[in-house]
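Request: Show me your protein:
***
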Amino acid sequence: MKKNLFIKKHLKKGFTLIEIMISVAIMTVIMGVVGLFQADIFSMNSSISEGLNSQSANRALIKDFVFELRNATTSQAGDYPLAAAGTSSVVFYSNIDGESDIEKVSYVLDGSDFKKFVIKPTSENIYSEENKILVKEVLNVRPTDTESPADIFQYYASSTDGSFDRAPMSEPIVLNEVRLVKMKLQTNPSIETQVAPRNLKNNF
């Protein structure tokens, strides 16, 4: 009879404090690992989403730039289609929205950001800097591996056989000799395109 009581007492023995502490520690480690894994997944999804948004914005900028510069035309005041040209910016006139006005469009490298500005003419056909509007912006662009930070645009003249010169024009750019414009931005992903404006003429 005494033997049976001893067995029952032994069977009723619970977890010791050390066993409970070890169990809690193991559960804490497991929960921490799961939490880190979830944080990594969230961070990865956020990075992928930002990358896709950036690619979409870059594609939209390329599409706009090509369309607008290809259709560059004289301003409403009669100015030449190209207003200014440099390695870090290009300014031209184009009907960018299909309405009656011809806008003054600027693509400019501002520090490490690439920006597009638009100026609508007044009723007197004046393009005032006070009316300049920032339309689009690409942040944190980098220079190409071989060019300086400001070398975003290159300009090419026509050769005698009607093709484009292989060597880009050097500054100062002679506006009425420009026939091809190349743009390259090192973003993620990089942007590179070229445009031959339709309405540029030597006899302007």
